[in-house]
Amino acid sequence: MDDTAHKLLIQFGFKFGRNGAHSSRTIMLKEIQALFSNTQTTATLEQYQTEIVDYNCLNKSTENTRKLTYRHLKDLYSLDSQLPLFRVFRQLWTIEPEAQAILALQLAYSRDPLFRMSSDCILSHKLGEQIRREEIEEILKKDDPERFSPASLKSFAQNINSSWTQAGFLKGKTRKIRQIPTISAVNVTFAMFQGHIYGLSGERLFNSPWIKILNTPIDRLQELASAASYRGLIDYKQSGGIIDVRFNDFLQLEEQQLLQQLHQDMSKET
């Protein structure tokens, strides 16, 4: 991916690099749920900061803790309605409360390189299988064995496994067991939108990394896409093996133009 495409993806809300929020925290599901229950869907980044730091809406004990919490939530989710990924995430949040935990994981996956590294390992395990913390540690140190200390690896792996647990993919406090969460039409909508930003369309939307983390058979994904269309979340049509998906008013006009530029840049590389 060239630098121009990379920068444009960042403008849409994706995040890259080598480090991520899971070096310090999990997806912080309870905090993001509490924050959104205390703010409007249209809240700005500054308003989120005010609620967390000045008004202490998350009931943190010290000012320093409030500032750290804001920083971690911003790192994970951006909290910036100017970024389409977060704005759509925030719009979808209130539609189906049961989808919130997986929605949080979906956005964190797009913004945390450390967390992304774990998905293949987690999803490769079958229902009822145990996932050991050491498996995640091995993945984190694979490309650079000396990068993290043993203590850091243990902490990062625990945070990552906790996030998968909060989202319903694992269960258990210390002994993590693979389970299958309930995926909703809202989750499929967001996953397809993420793929759309990356230049995918039609059937390819059902093979993207964002749809794959939902770990759901394609026929069920298509059923949920149809349900999302029926509810007006997207415009999904399937006829004669041809799939067409449109995302209604998710993007503003200038963002649609920017997306066209992004897709042109990405198509030059293929």
Structure description:
There is one protein chain. With 270 residues, the chain is mostly helical. It has three domains: 108 residues, no CATH class; 65 residues, no CATH class; 83 residues, Arc Repressor Mutant, subunit A (Orthogonal Bundle). Helices cover 54% and strands 6% of the residues. It contains 14 helices and five strands. A hairpin with a 4-residue loop joins strand 2 and strand 3. Helix 11 packs across helix 13. The termini are close together. The model has no long low-confidence stretch (mean pLDDT 94).
Separate helix tally: 14
Q: What low-confidence regions span 5 or more consecutive residues with pLDDT below 50? A: none
> How many structurally independent domains?
3
Tally of strands = 5
Structural class: mainly alpha
Biggest sheet architecture? 3 strands, antiparallel
Give the overall form. globular
Radius of gyration: 19 Å
**Beta-strand proportion:** 5-15%
> What level of helicity do the residues show?
40-55%
For the termini, the CA-CA separation is 10 Å
Strand order of the largest sheet: 1-3-2
Mean pLDDT: 94
- Succession of helices and strands: HHHHHHHHEHHEEHHHEEH
